[in-house]
Amino acid sequence: MNLIKIRSVAINAVEKACRACLEIQSQLISQDTINKKDQSPVTVGDYTVQALVINEIIKNLEEEYPFIAEEDSKTLSSEKDVEDKVLSFFNRFSGESFDGKQLGSILDKGNKKKTISNTNRWWTLDPIDGTLGFLRKDQYAVALALMEDNKPILGILGCPSLPISKGSEEKGCIFVGMKGSGSFMKPLSNIQTEQSISVSDKSDPTKAVFTESFVSRGFGHELNQKISKDMGVTEEPLKIDSQCKYAMVARGDSDCYLRLTQMDYRECIWDHAAGHIIVEEAGGVVTDFKGNQLDYSKGYKLEDNVGIVCSNKNLHNPLFESIKKSIQL
Description:
Elements: H1 3-28, H2 31-35, H3 40-60, E1 67-69, H4 73-77, H5 80-94, H6 100-107, E2 121-129, H7 131-135, E3 141-148, E4 151-163, E5 171-178, E6 182-187, E7 195-197, E8 210-212, H8 220-231, E9 238-239, H9 244-250, E10 256-259, H10 273-281, E11 284-287, E12 308-312, H11 313-326
Parallel strand pairs: 1-2, 8-9, 8-10
Antiparallel strand pairs: 2-3, 3-4, 4-5, 5-6, 6-7, 10-12, 11-12
Family: Belongs to the inositol monophosphatase superfamily.
Cofactor: Mg(2+)
Enzyme class: hydrolase
């Protein structure tokens, strides 16, 4: 099937998902829910976005590829209040009139791990990547990727809260990367326009800007500090949640994104596939901490990879020199 058509349909699906996310945040998140650390708004968001994206793609493309996504209907069907909210938001933004059974059927199309071995193309979706960012109305991403022969060939990152440029007051971007076609950014305010993006050309390791999560998991921040210190980095890291970190590298706002939280942890494929292709098509490099290509052929996890190393091409070798000095792999 024509990738240009798939690209267009996927962008429209992620756009609808982004607008639904903003409305869910507006209606369900308050200072009270933040203070109580109430997770229910992101639960509603996860289910709504997964259903919206899968439904839009299946409805508008002639050929149906299987999905690997985070959610299924089992838990939702036992939480009537949450299910009612999901149905309301889904029907509003999709234009459908689904009942709970139809909603569950769409959600369960995201649980097709067993079928991807029978096709060379499949989708992977993280409905809301960046739970904490979503709950505090900060950074999160809708992350969708189309895989071919277990490699991402199309990536869409919807970032509803991300400024359209460094320092801009206007927020809301969709990033798109397609194999052999480059990477682009679309403002959510005018989805018909797009501008080409590229990674930075920075080559001086001491000037590199790292990007990392607000909250450190495992030894992540400690390791980043060790590596950046060895490189002689003087810049403060850019702290941001979710796959927005890939977007920051892809458009040159930062130069390096490293992720290794603990040696035995294996990353989920939906946390990286979309960002991976967007950075590569913007001229960057994405490998693991051993310099190996990411292997998406093992199911839900990057079982054969240790961590993530993402940067422009100029800084990739200096990064690895410092990685070798900073951790025993």
